[in-house]
Design goal:
The chain is of the alpha/beta class. The chain has one domain (2-252): 3-Layer(aba) Sandwich (Rossmann fold). Helix content is 41%, strand content 23%. The strands form two sheets. A six-stranded mixed beta sheet has the order 6-7-8-3-9-10, with helices on both faces. Helix 3 (92-102) packs across helix 4 (109-121). The two termini are 25 Å apart. The chain binds adenosine-5'-triphosphate. Adenosine-5'-triphosphate (ATP) binds next to helix 1. Pfam families: ABC_tran. InterPro entries: AAA+_ATPase, ABC_transporter-like_ATP-bd, ABC_Transporter_VariousFunc, P-loop_NTPase. GO terms for molecular function: ATP binding; ATP hydrolysis activity.
Length: 253
């Protein structure tokens, strides 16, 4: 569902933020993209959703190339950036109506019902008629989530989705993401530097460091197959430069 082939981004000034990433995330998989600050996670996601042009390589979603067939690909993508832009002067419901217009969803009862369903699912049912300007950070995250799900994407990208959420909202988010994968076959790609999130809900985790994938597997594989034990230890060891060389061979062999 989500495919990257040799995906590379070198910024002006020479920083190679993503270096020949090749990766495939099938429908129904919850994939965690785990890496320390500056690893290149946001740059990768922006290329996968078509917001940033790769220096080389390509990305496809649902079989559509993000460069050559960008419209078709974007119709199938939901994206929640780490700092989502929302219109402060609109109410939650007005905002979702506006997003539905952008996606060309016909106005009418089914659309209003879908908006109500999403507001309910995200515990925003009582807030739909309040101005977004009055929302807390967590409520904004949820509103961004609702707007990303409205057109029923096949692939959902979330950049650091748990930042700013309280524990019960994190629990709710995890349940929602699991359901999207299991019941709707959505491929979910989330970036995080929170090991707990990756270990608990992701089917597979890619550890990303300095623009490269240094380990890939289920949380259990990454921990049990490693002499290091816990995912946290694996992560720390893999992202500590001194240990990277030796471990890349172990983990990817
Ligand atoms: N517009 C830009 N121009 C130049 N360099 C950039 C730009 N955006 C990001 N970078 C650099 O690319 C590298 C990867 O950044 P990126 O934001 O993709 O990492 P990240 O893993 O998302 O980090 P974080 O977890 O801190 O958000 C960093 O060295 C960063 O300084």
């Amino acid at each position: 569902m989500i495919e990257a082939a040799g995906l590379t981004k070198t910024y002006d000034g020479g920083v190679r933020a993503v270096d020949a990433l090749t990766l495939s995330v099938p429908a129904g998989e919850l994939f965690g993209f785990l890496g320390p600050n500056g690893a290149g996670k946001t740059t990768t996601i922006k290329m996968l959703v078509g917001l940033l042009t790769p220096t080389s390589g390509s990305a496809r979603v649902a079989g559509y190339d993000l460069q050559a067939q960008s419209r078709e690909a974007k119709q199938r993508i939901g994206y929640i950036p780490d700092n989502p832009f929302l219109y402060e002067k609109l109410t939650g419901r007005e905002f979702l109506d506006f997003i539905a217009d952008l996606y060309g969803m016909p106005a009418g009862r089914p659309r209003a019902q879908e908006i109500d369903r999403l507001l309910e699912m995200l515990d925003l049912a009582g807030k739909g008629d309040q101005l977004i300007g009055s929302f807390s950070r967590g409520m904004r995250q949820k509103m961004a989530m609702a707007s990303a799900l409205l057109h029923e994407p096949k692939a959902l990208f979330l950049d650091e989705p748990t930042v700013g959420l309280d524990p019960s909202s994190i629990r709710r988010l995890k349940d929602i993401l699991r359901n999207l994968c299991r019941e709707r076959g959505v491929a979910v790609f989330l970036s995080t530097h929170t090991l707990e999130v990756a270990a608990e809900i992701c089917d597979r985790v890619g550890v990303f460091h300095r623009g490269k994938l240094v380990a890939l597997g289920s949380p259990a594989e990454l921990t049990h197959d490693s002499a290091l034990g816990r995912l946290e230890d694996v992560f720390l060891a893999l992202t500590e430069s001194a240990a990277v060389g030796a471990l890349i061979e172990t983990e990817l062999s």
